[in-house]
Amino acid sequence: MSRAAAPVRPDDRTGSPGPDREWLWVLFSSLRLQTRLMRGSPFALLLGVVQPVVLLAVTVGANDQLTTEATTRFTVGVVMMAFWGATIWTAGGILQFEVHAGTLRANVTSTRSPQVILLGKCLGASLYTLPMIVVTTIVTVLLLGAPLRAERPGLLLLGLLLVAVSGTGLGMLLSCLFLLTRHGNHWSSALMYPIYILGGFMIPIDLLPEGVRWISTVVSLRWATDFLTAAAAGRFAAGSLAVMVALTVGYFVLGWYALRQIIRRAKREALLDRR
User: Fold this and answer.
1) Pair 240, 230: CB distance under 8 Å
2) Between 268 and 71, the higher pLDDT residue
3) Distance between CA 53 and CA 58 in Å, rounded?
4) What is the pTM (predicted TM-score) of this model?
């Protein structure tokens, strides 16, 4: 009696991974799609190249009397400012882009997890823009001939990796909030420039009015600025690192919850945005 043929698994026929690894495949596919969408985008070049060059020219390039510590602080602040703007307009605008492209409905109603899809796209946006900003910043500072410190390169690399992760969580949260509100584009503009001033990137917190100092405490990139600046000077700012990680976890939790609310509203009202 011949042996029965072994059953063919669904993943054997389609080439996609099995259920235990499917979320990794969805994550990577979403990440790759987002980076392809951003590749060669004039907007991404504006945020990742032109913006940091201009900010450095205004801060570091306009003052040749800066100390090494001040130059390092300004340089780190420029990276965080540029990444904040890039996160708002790239990762933060992902769901709005999905609405305009007509693909959001398919993403939230498919068998794939919409949370993993959004996570992958926001991670792709962060990994695309942050290295561009960092490289542009380093090259510009070297061309300006400004002195820099990098006493703990290992800590600097760790901090930048955490910045990418934090930007991913922040992008997920902002992307959902911009979709849940009626005027997402206006909120994008409203959040960008005020945080440049109030976020603690360039202006020391103690120089800000007391009534607005609390704003920077909920921005993880403010704590990343403190951590990276300390690492460049050879110090390990454990407190700043802990707050940054805690805020990043909070961004992910809130973003995950906000996307669930979007999906529930879509099922209940057959409505994906409030336009």
Assistant:
1) yes
2) 71
3) 9
4) 0.84
